[in-house]
Amino acid sequence: MSQNTQKNHSAEEVESFSKWGILIKRFTGLSKSFYLMLAFFLLIAVVGIGAGFHAMYIGYSHAYNITREIPWGILISTYVFFVVISTGLFIVSSLGYVFGLKDFMSIAKRAVFLSIVTVLAGFTVIFFEVENPFRMAIYSLISPNLTSNLWWMGTLYGAYLFFIITAFILLLTQKHKLAKYAGFFGVIAAVVANTNLGAEFGMLHAREFWYGAYLPIYFIPSAIMSGCATILFFTYLAHKVNNEPMDNAGTKALGVTTKLGILSICIVMFFTAWKIITGFVGTEGKIEAFKAMLIGKYALNFWLFEISIGMAIPLILYILFRGKNMEMIFVGSAFIILGIFFMRYDLVVLGQIVPVYYELGVSEYETLLTYFPSAHEILIVLGGIGIVATAFLLGEKVFNAHKVEVHENIANSSDLIDLTKTETIK
Amino acid sequence: MFKNLNFDKLKLESPNSLPEMERRKFLKMGFAVVGLLAGGKILYLVSIVNKGFAFQKGQYPYKPYYSMLIYQNRCIDCELCMEACVKTNQVPPYGYRTTILERRMPKAIEQKIEFIPVLCNQCNKPPCVKACPTRATYKDKKNGIVMMNPQKCIGCKTCMVACPYNARYYKEEIRSIDKCDFCYESRLSKGVKFPACEEACPARVRIFGDLSDPNSEVYKMVHQLEKTVWVLRPETGAVPNVFYTRG
Lengths: 426, 247
What we know:
The complex is a heterodimer.
Chain A: H1 2-18, H2 20-26, H3 32-58, H4 60-63, H5 74-97, H6 108-127, H7 133-142, H8 149-172, H9 176-202, H10 214-242, H11 248-279, H12 284-294, H13 299-321, H14 326-350, H15 375-398, H16 406-411, H17 419-425
Chain B: H1 20-42, H2 53-57, E1 66-71, H3 80-89, E2 99-104, E3 113-118, H4 127-131, E4 137-139, E5 146-148, H5 158-162, E6 168-171, E7 176-179, H6 196-200, E8 206-210, H7 217-222, E9 242-245
Parallel strand pairs in B: 1-9
Antiparallel strand pairs in B: 1-8, 2-3, 4-5, 6-7
């Protein structure tokens, strides 16, 4: 019975997508503020991309503040920021429709959609960082280097993008069994791609700040933390945008996501604590980098943005207001996202501020190097944010608020685990 | 309770009364602590000849095996090597393939300043080659030089971050990373025996040679133990082929 209705629904759904009329209808008669927001973020996205092309035209070395000594700047860190959010979103979404935790079901579609959007925003930003992106497309294929983490990054994120888009289409067309498989492979790709991204830094053994097994592992809890915060942030906004009250399933989903968020913040705090402690053994250069982070030029970034705004305050808000006050959870999530942006920035820049010849004691490299992003770089970063915001707003309308159909829960209820039930049994 | 305690019979606590092993342990600990603090500096003073590729395997994978020996104390910072390099390899003003670093030691006895020429170390285990996604940079199988294929370079700059010697820069004119290749493209491949920097040097600071040829000066200096020969940043494990000494 249920299978029949599912088939009928999917047929209808497919049909409805072919009808542009319905789509246009969803965009008419919306509030003024929606159009204003859409126009605003679209403008930011366009300006950002425009700045990127302008930088490409005048040459990146003239447009960006990157140097021979610090070749990786805010565009790399923003790329990391976006793709790690994407993997986090996808991992959190998969808990529902891949691993059968029913409570996560109602956020799945939006989370998968946003994971596609954020990874594409990341690709857009890095498109304007790599000097010859078109050569990349060709020579990654015909001249691959299997020992290069960067080559694997492209390949794995390519595979990841394929799986998450497939999973999203299958979720839309209600092919839940297949979506489960696509999602499963997507999760594997996400974890491998994400850890490899950590290894991209961790395997550069000339840079002691990064070198080691720490970063690949750290990127997993960090991704889950980003994913939880991002989905909480956007779910709250979605309900504001769509002017709809939250239903029971939605509230429950946000409750468990907040819980997972609390856990992941604690894990990342634990990681951060040990990073600091171990940071003070090693060579002079590495210790100098840690000093810059804790008491030097980057102390404000670290203590205010990474620690207070990124973790401590949200942790308190999450614990105090979980399941009670969605506004406060929203504020906490916004704080985390902001904090994570600085975490990525500090990670990328601090790894390079120690000159390679620092310990040689030469006059040229007596002090730590400095970097601050240029106007072009900042505009491109804003462009990435504009892309995500625009796509979010459009997505809410095009995909009808990412609603999970009632029967989706019923049809699959047998193989789903109800987290609240297990809780009451305990 | 303290009846049996006879203070007169107690042995005096002194280094003499400590067992041999205890003393050694204590000394070792002391050395370890001092070593930890001084480690970074000392690495530059210890000869790496034993760790050199030649001694590891006893044979050389390339013939000739290009390498360079730099007499650090001879350099006077005249920069003729840099000039010659720029001319020979069309190096733009914003970049360099080789440069000269300056070390000031105000508290040193007599000479208080020395110059350290640096260039690509043509490592045996080049971190840049490992990191390049498209094999645009590679260790040449015949001559062992870390070369560039500019057409394949995507400009991701990972090799610049990976390099322990800051030997790479992005050359806009060819839309590719550029680096020292011991003048292979501009000279060696055309039959000239020496790179431009060596030829230009008036003080015989840079000695270019074949590390596998017993008649070469580089061979003679690297394969001996009396005089200290070192490399820069040995801790990265890149196994460089540019050696430094004084004399």
